[in-house]
Amino acid sequence: MAKELKGLTKRSENYSQWYNELVVKADLAEQSAVRGCMVIKPYGYAIWEKIQRQLDDMFKATGHVNAYFPLLIPKSFLSREAEHVKGFAKECAVVTHYRLKSSEDGKSVIVDPAAKLEEELIIRPTSETIIWSTYKNWIHSYRDLPILCNQWANVFRWEMRTRLFLRTAEFLWQEGHTAHATREEAETEAVKMLNLYADFAENFMAVPVVKGVKSETERFAGALETYTIEAMMQDGKALQSGTSHFLGQNFAKAFDVQFLDKNNKLDYVWATSWGVSTRLMGALIMTHSDDNGLVLPPKLAPIQVVIIPIYKNEEQLHTIDDKAEAIATNLRKMGLSVKYDNSDNRRPGFKFADYELKGVPVRLVIGARDLENGTIEVLRRDTLEKESVSIEGIEDRVKALLDDIQNNMFVKAKTYRDERTINVDTYDEFKEKIEEGGFLMAHWDGTPETEAKIKEETKATIRCIPLDGDTTPGVDMITGKPSARRVMFARAY
Amino acid sequence: MAKELKGLTKRSENYSQWYNELVVKADLAEQSAVRGCMVIKPYGYAIWEKIQRQLDDMFKATGHVNAYFPLLIPKSFLSREAEHVKGFAKECAVVTHYRLKSSEDGKSVIVDPAAKLEEELIIRPTSETIIWSTYKNWIHSYRDLPILCNQWANVFRWEMRTRLFLRTAEFLWQEGHTAHATREEAETEAVKMLNLYADFAENFMAVPVVKGVKSETERFAGALETYTIEAMMQDGKALQSGTSHFLGQNFAKAFDVQFLDKNNKLDYVWATSWGVSTRLMGALIMTHSDDNGLVLPPKLAPIQVVIIPIYKNEEQLHTIDDKAEAIATNLRKMGLSVKYDNSDNRRPGFKFADYELKGVPVRLVIGARDLENGTIEVLRRDTLEKESVSIEGIEDRVKALLDDIQNNMFVKAKTYRDERTINVDTYDEFKEKIEEGGFLMAHWDGTPETEAKIKEETKATIRCIPLDGDTTPGVDMITGKPSARRVMFARAY
Fold first, then answer.
1. What angle separates helix A42-61 from helix A183-203, to the nearest 10 degrees?
2. What is the pLDDT of residues A77-87, one digit of tens each?
3. What percentage of chain A has pLDDT greater than the value 90?
4. Structural domains of chain B, ranges and CATH numbers in brackets
5. Which terminal residue of chain B has fewer beta carbons within 10 Å of its beta carbon, N or C?
């Protein structure tokens, strides 16, 4: 097996390199000819489609609808909201011209200087501004509210240091943008979507998350409150996996979106926005995978069950084909996605390693002796445990096994995280423990100054102020000033 | 009803204006703050999602997989394929900078001149170049072939005159890009996708199409052959609704993509590309809709059945609610999408007009007297025929009615088109008939010169050389030179 996986670095040797190699070797994504932009390959995209479909169903079940807003944003829109522009102006792609022409020697094309735009256009880094300029025309009275729109789109942020899925210049995401008549309703919406993201992360991705609010420093540019779900990777670093923002009336004021309330009084509209991106792919990979490759939760695996025959001659293969195809058909009737791989150009050992690399949750192997004995070999990808079981009733057994794998993956990840989530009471201890990774629960005086000092000295940031958990007051580990509760620190992706 | 539809121009008065108004009034799309870019509103997007889902299922059923390639393309890529650059360089959005900064007065943002790109990037007008630069790394031997990738994406072409859905600067589409070991296999693929598009247009959109190949003049920039499906709108103009290109080895040569064939000989890879876009929305609207609004084929309608109660008091409403919700539940169990609209802020007459405007295929109305009599009023949107039927067995009746509407819409559109498809033998007759619209089948000598003359003098273009139909030879209506068969002329969108 080592041969087929040639070159996959072990996590213990170099976690970062292991990740980079795995993304490429498992055919998930690769760098493109355009700096910082990735190609999402078919196998990676198939996982993203599963994520999309499930989230989309959950959005619709909570009353949201999809729409589509322009890719390009007039430059002046960005500066309408004072905080927003600070957050996004520094990393955007700017369209300045709308035509090319042939060079004088006719061998290439050059930008036509005559085709300069009067106002430059920005490729959306996020769509609050273009959407609120649109909502202005949609909203007149409380009867037009709420608006609960989501959009699946590509966005672009000119990142200097990029990594596949985790931080790319272009990425795919969904962005919800809602408009409400009251502050309370908007705040409820922001929390509802946070909970939806947490539900998705835990019950579909099998990734345990901590729900919380960001400190002011880490807040979305233009929000009054940013809610977040934070996951722990196997190197003990945090990965922000989804955010939901309560925007107050900031964007309504920036784009002058007012409505007549029930008392016929004009007021600005209240807003939220919330999003998850292809970054979730990074969370999925880094939470579960091992030195043999991907480990995918059954609910998001493009192939849930693979069946591989082992045979010495055509006659044996024919007999195995019949049995395997019958099992595959039965499993598909149960709604499972099954691949029967009887291709003759790859040896079984190669196939084993390849499907392990690809993270297929359950592998069934049928050999000639199995047929004689009425048995079949079952391997579960999460633990790599293998057993020979009766072929009779294999379908129910596979179904139960998939449920068990989904559950086990979550429990394993949660146990890992909980063991590495510790209370820390002194700054010395903090500086020591942060080197080992993990989530450090510490008291903080609530000031950006202390937060900045800790970040500078330890590279740890406040990931969130958790919504649940220990709320005992204490004193800041550095300044000794009062702290309302412990907050969660970690180094982060 | 006239009141609620206030201002929808009649088709007979001004077809073009009728279309523009309908798209906006039916909440399908609207202009955005960015020139030529549209906002696709939730109701319009819901139809597009139905189109997407169905096409995606059909692509996957024919062995295709989805992937995602970068939005931006290095400028130099465009000029690699000589014909391709001529077709696309003139209408593209050019990214030249990657950062903004505050203006000196601090009141706005300006492009940071220090952040100029070494090589400009183009927002993809189509993705052949970036995809073939990627395929170069994926393809080494015949064992790597075929590659059957599709991508759902936004693309951008700087159009001067735009119309919602029909021609917009940014639009949404899918683009398939396949790579093959032999010419025959690629040609077969191009025709297969043409047939898939025709199948979708006719059996889901209820839009009859003519399948054919484009003349050299109308061919995709970089293709050896462009296949097309052409539909006729209610004003007799043609709408190109989908194209499938046999690209030969042009892009493989431009990006140096070679493979070792079974005989261990190096050869360039054969290619196809094929796409349909949000333009299909325009075809859907213009083929079927009437002066009351949209008429949607049941298979693509976001709401297939609407139920509206008519009541004088709360007690009546409660009784009707029970009955209506039972019917809605039964219909949903049959897989139909049903809306029960018992909202009390709109009168029934307003609701009737609104759902007609939105093109909901079947409307059920229940009043108090209906409940007494055990009847229900059924209206079919395509013919606006109304009848009172027994409430008993209404579910099966609705199901059958939806099938009938789907079928009737296709037959009606096909009859309309066939009546307006005529043979024309002289240029005088051609010039007279083209003013009435319709498809004119005429003999052509096969030269670009004659084609250009006809286009200049009549605004008619060769929509396609049909794959089926009359193949009797004749003589060109202008030059008298031999013609292999009649080709199809029309004015087009």
1. 140
2. 998 888 888 88
3. 92
4. 15-72+132-288 (3.30.930.10), 298-405 (3.40.50.800), 421-490 (3.30.110.30)
5. N
Name which of A99, A130, A170 is nearest B158 (Cβ-Cβ).
A99
- Kindly state whether B33 is in contact with chain A, defined as any CB-CB distance less than 8 angstroms: yes
Answer whether B24 touches A (CB < 8 Å): no
Q: Which residues contact A238 (CB under 8 A, 6 or more apart)?
A: A230, A231, A232, A439, A463, A490, A491, A492, A493
- Model confidence over B165-190: pLDDT tens digits? 999 999 999 999 999 999 999 999 99
Element (H, E) at A372: helix A368-373
Nearest to A39 among B69, B107, B345 (CB): B69
Upper half-sphere CA count for residue B335 (Cβ side, 13 Å): 4
- Residues in A closer than 8 angstroms to B123, CB to CB, are 71, 95, 123
A411 lies within 8 A of chain B by CB: no
Which of B30, B89, B172 is opposite residue A109, by nearest beta carbon?
B89
Q: Is 0.90 topped by the overall pTM?
A: yes
* Interface size, chain A vs chain B, as Cβ–Cβ contacts under 8 Å: 194
Å from A144 to nearest chain B CA? Answer: 12
Measured between beta carbons, which residues in chain A are less than 8 angstroms from residue B37? 70-72
Across the interface, of A71, A79, A120, the residue whose CB is closest to B170 is A71
Does B34 sit within 8 Å of A130, measured CB to CB? Answer: yes
Give ipTM to 2 decimals. 0.96
Nearest to A70 among B37, B45, B70 (CB): B37
Q: How confident is the model at residue A6 (pLDDT cuts 50, 70, 90)?
A: low
Q: What pLDDT was estimated at residue B106?
A: 80
> For chain B, what is the HEC assignment?
CCCCCCCCCCCCCCHHHHHHHHHHHCCCEEECCCCCCEEECHHHHHHHHHHHHHHHHHHHHCCCEECECCCEEEHHHHCCCHHHHHHHHHHCCEEEECCEEECCCCCCEEECHHHEEEEEEEECCCCHHHHHHHHHHHCCEHHHCCEEEEEEEEEECCCCCCECCCECCEEEEEEEEEEECCHHHHHHHHHHHHHHHHHHHHHCCCCCCEEEECCHHHCCCCCCEEEEEEEECCCCCEEEEEEEEEEECHHHHHCCCEEECCCCCEEECEEEEEEEECHHHHHHHHHHCECCECCCCHHHCCCCEEEEEECCCHHHHHHHHHHHHHHHHHHHHCCCCEEECCCCCCCHHHHHHHHHHCCCCEEEEEEHHHHHHCEEEEEECCCCCEEEEECCCHHHHHHHHHHHHHHHHHHHHHHHHHHCEEECCCHHHHHHHHCCCCEEEEECCCCHHHHHHHHHHHCCEEEEEECCCCCCCEECCCCCCEECCEEEEECEC
Could you tell me if B154 lies within 8 Å of chain A, comparing CB atoms?
yes
Nearest CB among B39, B67, B107 relative to A70 is that of: B39
Question: Hey, is the C-beta of B137 within 8 angstroms of any chain A C-beta?
Answer: yes
Local structure of A23: helix, strand or coil: helix
Would you state the torsion angle of the CA atoms of residues A57, A61, A63, A69, taken in this order, to the nearest 10 degrees?
0
- B303 near A CB under 8 A: no
Q: Is B92 on the interface with A (CB under 8 A)?
A: yes
To the nearest 10°, report the CA torsion of A23, A24, A25, A28: 60
Residues of chain B with C-beta less than 8 angstroms from the C-beta of A76: 108
What six digits make up the tokens of B145?
């072939």
Q: Decide if A139 touches B, using CB distance below 8 A.
A: no
